[in-house]
Amino acid sequence: MSAGGGWAVAAVAAVTGGYALVSRRLALTVVSAPMVFTAAGVLIGPAGLGLLDPERDAGPVLALAEAALALVLFTDAATVRSEEFRNGWFLPVRLLVVGLPLTIAGGGLLAWALLPGLTGWEPALVGVILAPTDASVGKTAVFAPRIPAVVRHGLNAECGLNECLVLPVFAVLLAALPGTSASHQGVTGILRQVLLLSPLLGLVAGGLGGVLLSRSRAAGRVDDDWRRILPLALAAGAGTLAAATGGSAFVAAWVAGFAFAAALRAGPPPGSVPEGEDDTLESVEHLAALLASLSFLVFGAVLLGPALTDLNGRVVAYAVLSLTVVRMLPTALALAGSRLRPPTVAYTAWFGSRGLPSLVLGLVVAAEEVPGARPMGTAIAVTVGLGVLLHGVSSVPLADRYGRWYERAASRRPSLRESVAGGLPGERPLPEWKRR
Length: 436
Known about the structure:
The protein has 436 residues and is an all-alpha fold.
């Protein structure tokens, strides 16, 4: 390892260890983990100390970010619970079926109008990259106990599902751009690989792994430590197989998570693990959280730091409008007629935080040799960076304010639509790593 690379690793380790030591204290403040790691990335990147060189470290950096997103997709899919949709199904369904397409269209049109230098499908690609949301950027806003269950689960389910729904569109648009690594496969080839082969590989890997694990647990043949490690192998295996065959590692990992959880639930009861206390996904959840934090650090160094030197009024205007009008107007239209009160609509619309999916897809585009890679990367980086700051800072005070409003409104009107019969049936506490 070169001296420069050694200093970069030491700096990353110092940031990670330092945050770990004060993580509980910071969890009660407006300073979020994505804010800390993004700022640290800017500091150690070429715009700061220069310890992390995007050109020298491009391969490991992109591999880290892609691994983080694959693990997050696997865990998001595996932890989606049917009770989240039993009574409150209308919120995520409206956000995904109506709000997501409108957000993509609005982001693309805005990029076409405000960002010069983008040609062909590049504005649409920017709109797709900045459409998915990430609950980790404003965790308090999504997981605070005072927030009505239908809103908590609705936002969490949206974040867990929309990131994969945009991946096929992203792959097709990337293949449509001349000069990209996927362009030689053509749009038809990409559709076949992403929509057929990748889901099939994920289904086989996740489903078979879940069946074998459930039978092994029932027979008492699996050690608890290795039981928690198996999901890591399944997520990595499904993603690697898909990538090796020209498909999407992200789609394969996402489908594998669904299949694994479904097979595990349908299998023989383990007997030794009480219902609702299964910790099989604990290891992959914690590793996904760590890699996601490191990806924000990489984002700050590789994308955001250099983007700050290219700032101009058009980019800033795009970022502001993308975080407000492009998210909030489609959300308001999607929730029209839902009988949710205006404070709930506004709260749901504001906390459409951009995060890990957008920054990873932005890194993928930045690694491609296309004419619009730099302006696209700048717009994506500034939008995500501004979102990390604004949503992180506002999550604690707005969650507290909205929670107080809901408690007053629910006490005066028990039939409030947000209450959904007082909560969702079978609701279980979220994992600690998700609530911090």
